[in-house]
User: Fold this.
Amino acid sequence: MTSGTPEIRKLPPGVVNKIAAGEVIERPASVVKELLENSVDAGATRIDVTVEQGGMELIRVADNGCGIRAEQLELAVASHATSKIRDAEDLFQVRSLGFRGEALASIAEVSQLVIRSRPAGAEAGAELEVAGGQTKPVTPCGCPIGTSIDVRNLFFNTPVRRRFLRTVQTEMGHVIESFTRIALAQPGSHMCLRHNDRVLHDLPPADRWLDRIAAFFGAKLGDSLIWVESCQEGVRLSGYVADPSVSRGSNRQQYILLNGRQIRDRTLQHALGEAYRGLLMTGRFPVAFLRLDMPPDLVDVNVHPAKLEVRFTDGRRLYSQLLGTLRTRFLTSDLTARARLDEPAAPPSLSGHDPEQAARHREETMRWARGEGSAAEGSAAGDEPTRRWGGDRRPVPEFRPFGAGGPRPGLADPSRPDPAAAQPVRDDRLHATPPPPVARGLQVHHRYLVTENAEGLVVIDQHALHERILYEQLRRRVLSGTLESQQLLVPEPVALSPAETAAVLESRDVLAQLGLVVEPFGGDTILVSSYPAMLAKLNPADVLRQIVESLLENDRTPDRRDLLDELLHTVACKAAVKAGDYLSPDEVATLLQQRHLCHDAHHCPHGRPTALVFSKEELDKRFKRI
Ligand code: ADP
Ligand code: MG
Assistant:
């Protein structure tokens, strides 16, 4: 060896497998995914998954598929050994879920694995044990037709990986997600999932895909689904999309199956969003269960180690097929009536909800936002100087051209209360404490506030601004430990999915910082026992569900601070006035006053702009004054 140049060595197979395992096997859920895919490829019609301790102790997948011959067992756990493709050509004709021949070798390298298998027609079964990559001799055993694989003590020989694993509940949440994805794709198979001797799912073969979907997500969601279907140039699209009255805070509930394989595809997700444009509120995502079936040569599945992403030969055409199919379907269904039901956004006279209650709630929230005590305290005291707020609902004032009576906006004394706003209620306390400067503004389209500053004309998104104000307030209170929490007289039980329950319990202490105290209540029910006072008028179950969505969006272990921040956003968003809410002139004024208190009034917590400024110069130019 010449000194100075590093020596290049071929890595021993054990190291190669560990590297592959690093890519493919991240946690117990990845093992479940790979084993289930193998069972599906083996043509199984019944698959039983048994898991102990979130899969950290045991994962067993037993199927009634084609089985593996005794003399092939060693090959099954060898790396780059597969029965699914033969040559490079086949890579572009993949019809199976697996094809890389790496999964079993990777899993066997980082666990204690036992395969028992018996093909139909074989007299007996055969058993092979591999511990940390060390293969033992194959021995005969008694077993039913099919294959059963036990994976114990995952990562027992890779302590770093093992340390990355989280609680049983969290890992189980991921396992359930893997199971759900495959079971959704295989509605015709009987599939069963057990955890620590508890049956989580026992799904008989379903005649309709809808039945399998409803088995996971409930009949209520099932009822909101709309069948869509189209066939263009050999690509068949079929499945269900949810009525716009049902939406989610992330795109996690968009299941897309490509030739039976669950995939993640930004382009298709974008097409979905586009199809719902105008039907959902900003920040909400559609729910969809879609199958795409196409000749395998129209797609490259060999681009991602866990085979989650694929590359289409003509992605653009797929995009327009999906968008077109949904748009056509929406045009022919009566969505508007249903969508409106869920829309909190309408002036009181038109909306179905109780405007008085909404007004009271908003009044309290706004008072809270101004730092005038919690909503609960406020209503008990009942004497806040800004009591006039919200209670008296007047029609939106008519827009008057500048100069048509009243002080001209540019010249008005900003410290003088707006006479129009102050008139209806005479409140002597106003004189005791000088009122803050009144910011003038006007609500338009029930969603924007129009005002002015030194630069020019300012148009503000009312929801985004209020959300920002509440967020800043909440954050200050959480950090200083002065956030009020209110104990519920009767704790509220909230039924969640196992994955959601896990996520909530995992983040209990962060939730407690927000004033939301939760306890396990057995099964997948969570008890909410204390609740942020500012949200007193909102339904705890709704708020918890919303929070769960943001918890689940953080796929990876979120930093505690990030998580808290994320939850603050969620709570602020939930409590803020919505686009479409009618605001009285006083409410408009208070919002505008608060504006200057935020650190960053230009962006809502999601980063969207809260305000647009049309400069005086620009206006002058447009009106051809300069
Ligand atoms: P791949 O699925 O990419 O081929 P794996 O490592 O997952 O690679 O599996 C290796 C081989 O073992 C498969 O090609 C298949 O022939 C066989 N095999 C694995 N699991 C099963 C099973 N449950 N039933 C029948 N054969 C199986
Ligand atoms: Mg496989």
In short: Residues 34, 37-38, 98, 103 surround magnesium ion (ligand 2) (CB under 6 Å). Residues 336-355, 368-436 have pLDDT under 50 and may be disordered. The longest strand covers residues 485-495.
